[in-house]
Each structure stands twice: as C-alpha cells, then as structure tokens.
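ingest -> validate -> predict -> emit
validate: passed (alphabet ok, no gaps, 296 aa)
predict: started
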Amino acid sequence: MQIFIKVVEQGGFSPAAIRLGLSRGTVSKAIAHLEAQLGVRLLHRTTRQVSLTEAGQIYYRNVRAILENIEASEAEITGFARRPYGHVRITAPLSLGERDLSEILAAFCRDNPEISLELQLTDRFVALVEEGVDLAVRIGLLEDSSLIAKKITETALGLYCSPEFLRRRGRLYTPEDLKPEDCLRYQNRNSGRYWTLTHPDGREHKVQVHGRVSSNNGEVLATMAACGLGVVMLPKFIAKDYMASGKLVEVLRPWSPGNVGVWAVYPTRQHVPLAVRHLIDYIAVHLPERLPEEDS
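emit:
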C-alpha cells in the first residue's frame, strides 16, 4: 500500500523508488503484484508518467485514509497528535498566491516550525488526488465533485478599463452601454459568456461577453485592460494596485458583479491531517482581512 501511495504522490515509478530507497524494478513489481492481487488495473502507464484509473482513484482514497489513520494513531501514542506537523502541498491561483496568500503562508511557517509547505501557483485546474495535493485555495464557482470545499470568505468583483479606453469608447454608465466585443473574458473550466450585474435597487442585467482577448490569468487581463483593449471583470484585490497607479478606473457603478467565493478544497473529510486542518483554519482567519468585500 505504501509503495502504491508513493508512486501516485511522486508521479511515477522512478521518483517513488528514489524516495523509498528501492530499485525501480522492485517498485514496478510491487505495483504489478498489487494489481494482480486485486484483479484490477490501478494505474495508467506512459513513458513519462502514471495516472490513476477510476479503480485506482477509489483505492488511493481509501488506502490513503487507512495509512493516515495509522499515522495519526501512532502520533497520538507518541504525543505528536497534540501539535500539527508534517508536509503540506498546497495550490492556489497565481494572482492570489503572489499577493496576499504568500505573506499569510510565510507567517504560518514562522508560527508552525514543524510544518513544511510546498506551494504550487497555477491558474490551471489541479486534480488534487491524482497530483498528490493536500489543499487548494480556489476562487469562483466550483465543480461538482467528491472533493470537500470549505468557504473561507468572499471577495468583491468590479468592472474596470483604462482611462484611454474610456475616452475613446465614450460613456459607460449602464450595462446597456457595454458591447460584447468590449469585454475581456476570464477563461477557466467554469467560466461563462455572460456577466451578471446587479443594481442596488434589485434590478439585474446580463451582459454578453465575447471580446477578442480571453485568459485564465487575472493579472494578464488587468494588463490587457490597462493597455486599452477593453473592459475587464476583476477581483478588487487585483484591481486596487492598477487603480492606485491610474492605469485602471472602475466603471458602471453602482451596477456591480457582486462578490465571488474563496474556497479551501481538499480530497476528503475524514482523516484530514492535523497540519492541513490547522492550515485551513489559519487561512480562514487571516485571508478575509486582506480581501475587499463589496461594501468596503
């Protein structure tokens, strides 16, 4: 079981063998024996990497929970369960990780010397189980899945463009003033082609979005908007520096895209390592202090 877990988390037979101090052949034979014993294929093998089959995903979740339970029991006996320790792999969007989250994690490391962190910043969708990641901080709509999600906070969205674009384009007071081609689109697995804007009096308006530029990175879209390419919907924690420097201005107020959720996502509710639980709680306390909400 431990060899299988290590192969999954290290992404291949060779790196797992190095971590375990075994030969690659020994690791490969152990996995083949396990698959023969269970009567199912657990791993898809390619020349560069391995990935979990559907049966492998189920087996990985269950076996990992068993091993974590054993480790927790041993730790409790030796007294380690009274304080968090271990290694945590965490992933987050670039814009959030480079700004507020990295400072929070630095403070967390200072306060918790027995916990080590591996932070992966990426705007692609990370498959937590398959890639051996313990925790993801995600912004926006979540996919339906077997993963567990805890809402940490919400952060405000706004609509922005450059002063030069506003001069060239003319008035932008109401949603009707926006043309679909004006809008720079954030693109991910859950992004749509409409912006939903709400007025304080309760009116709602959908704006069609199909500008020439789309990206899965908020900083890229902010830069494109600052260069005069159009109007962008951004979290205010990204937009604030661009506004302070005069590169972007907020438009269409008091119409608002509202707030978007910030989530802690992790593979399982049961047997969550104490270090992961402690990190989630720490982020939940300190991240809301840094992210502007709509009414602020």
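The chain has three domains: 2-78, 80-153+260-286, 155-258.
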